[in-house]
Amino acid sequence: MKLIFRYLKPYILTVLAIVVLTFVQVQSELLLPDYMSGIVTNGIQYGGIEEETPVALTKKDMDNILIFTEDDNTILSQYELHKANETAIIDDQKIVFNEDVYLLKDKSEIAEMRDPLVYSYMAKQNGLAVSEENKAELISQLNDKLKGLEDNYGSMARIYNKSLYDNVGLSITTIQNNYILSSGLKMLGIAAIGVLVQFISTYLATKTAAKVAAKMRKDVFEKVESFSSSEFSRFSTSSLITRTGNDITKIQQLIQMMLRMMLMSPIMGITAVIKVTRYPNISWLLLVAIGIMICAMIVLAVFAVPKFEVIQKLTDRLNAIMREFLDGMLVIRAFNSQKIEENKFDDINSGLKKTDLFVSSVMNIMIPVMTLVMNGLTVSITWFASKQIDIDAMTIGEMMAFSQYAIHVVMSFMFVTGMFFMVPRSLVSVRRIKEVLDTKNTINDVAEPKVLPEENGVLSFEHVSFRYPGAEESVLEDVSFTADPGQTVAFIGSTGSGKSTIVKLIPRLFDVSSGRISYCGEDIRNVSQKQLHEKIGYATQKAILFSGDIRSNISFGRDVAEEDILKAVKIAQAEDIIKEKDEGLDAPITQGGTNVSGGQKQRISIARALAQDKNIYIFDDTFSALDYETDKRLRKALDELISKTKATVIMVAQRISTIKNADKIIVLDNGKVVGEGKHADLLKNCDIYRQIAYSQLSKEELA
Ligand SMILES: Nc1ncnc2c1ncn2[C@@H]1O[C@H](COP(=O)(O)OP(=O)(O)OP(=O)(O)O)[C@@H](O)[C@H]1O
Ligand SMILES: [Mg+2]
Fold first, then answer.
1. How many angstroms is it from 622 CA to the middle of ligand 2?
2. Contact 160, 120 (CB under 8 A)
3. Are strands 476-483 and 87-90 parallel, antiparallel or unpaired?
4. In 470-587, which ranges are continuous DSSP H helix?
5. Does domain 459-702 have CATH number 3.40.50.12780?
6. Per residue in 272-307, pLDDT tens?
7. How far is ligand 1, taken at its centre, from the CA of residue 685, in Å?
8. Degrees, nearest 5: CA angle 186-188-189
9. Nearest to 22 by CA among 204, 236, 211
10. For residue range 440-489, what is the model confidence (pLDDT) as tens digits?
11. Could you tell me the residue ranges of all domains in the chain?
12. Is 469 in the pocket of ligand 1 (CB under 6 A)?
């Protein structure tokens, strides 16, 4: 998690903006049920009449109402009397009065006239005649009727207003339509704001997540680039590929989810809970629903979640097998071992299928359970709320709003708990990325690297021993030799004797375990890797080409002049490859160099090593893929080159003929130097050399 926060830090302002936008979105979404409730209750039930104090009423009605109050003047002072035949505009309706009408002067200053209004309404409902004379008797009668109905005075007043307005000549339908229309427009406006805000915050979240992922991918790539071979051996290639691809994508999704759902659900849940508590009589239903869901989640946690990890592991293994299969396709075919590979694949594949099916089944049961809970909740809300509506403790609109809030609460709860399952899965990916980023490089530059001189110098191994990281035994033991400028030093020995290992130590692909390697008298560990690499032209044992063309594979990102490329091509005996192709140097090379032969690959990689003037050239067994003639011509050209530049050549070979003329031949056996000298001396003094030589050359050739 820390890693994610570290990467999110530069986007703190965007994140804050998303928080604010999410808040606005939630508020606007949760306002809608209130408006809907208003439309149902005020708009439909009360004909769009919100006010309890009538805005307009005929003088006759007013007189009937005033009978039930002692305080006529306070009420009348708020009204203005208009005579019959006068015209007025009330609520956008133009009316010519048929009789005398009172109009409320100021809507914001409302006269306290609810009680007289209700009494008058009740009298009318019950068809009781009202007059000053029977007032006392009437009031006592009405008191009986109104007992216990105090809570309903407001709605009675509003219902009465409908008939009062009717008497004035106002159209109730118009009032109702106006109310519904204005509420509807407000709802539309709020919904539009919600959608807009949601769009912006989703965009910001997506953008932030994508940016973080890109940065992370770059960091991982750069980190991997700085890895030495020993770090590489810790992570397999396919694992590094999954990490930069799959894992970072998962993190990207996690961030996006964090910035949207993880922020939104709690805000939504809490706001909805606050709204729900306005209806204390039925909010216990929500607790029941959440309780059932917690049980369901526990089932999920116990049965399905542990399997998530199993799936992840099986997928990894499936990938590994698939990769091996693809890499080794040709060999597998040649040895007819498809069946074995298929069986290996089938084992894991069917395991994966079973686990997947199990998890999916558990998850699939969850969906109907959740739907059941939701629908059950809606039904029970309707059931219990209708009882509340019956005793006028709630309106239909409120019930509808409540059930919407309740669903929001339940949904938020579901998302939050869902996150408890999802986040740990994504955190696995975070951990895998962290592992790569936190890997300490074993080969580092010293704080103040020494600078090597321009000129060629002596390369010297002094009692070098080397053990591969994690290996039990040393591969090289006490290897010492020197290579002077202009000299060719060749290594020969059986396979696995440590030849490649020796040359890998020179560009510091690995560091020696003990002893030291120096160039121009300077320990190469005290020189910057960049400078060291600039001095070395290296052709690896396994030629590696990259997708592009021949030219790009030779110049290899360096600033190499055309003539230098051609010169290198000539020495490497690669001219015929280029002549053969219509595009010449621009002939395309596919990924991994699959469209050229092994020998052609070798020569292009030799040309790459030769393209720039270097102090040391290393050829690790690069000549064995060449035929004798080409090998000979190449060596001759190389000799000419170094006799001019006085560079040092380190050459590993299998064939005696390749190294016969070397200035110094070093014979390796099992990581130890068992012979050193020229061809003729070694033939005399070194058993192993003699064995190799006799197995390869005829007596005449050896002479
Ligand atoms: N990355 C590695 N990790 C551990 N051991 C290794 C590694 N690379 C090579 N070895 C071991 O080191 C020994 C020497 O390997 P090396 O590649 O130097 O042999 P070589 O003389 O170049 O052989 P070949 O002629 O087949 O190229 C071998 O026994 C090999 O198993
Ligand atoms: Mg080798």
1. 10
2. yes
3. unpaired
4. 499-505, 529-535, 550-555, 562-571, 575-580
5. no
6. 988 888 888 888 888 888 888 888 888 888 887 788
7. 26
8. 65
9. 204
10. 888 888 889 999 998 999 999 999 999 988 888 999 999 999 999 999 99
11. 1-233, 459-702
12. no
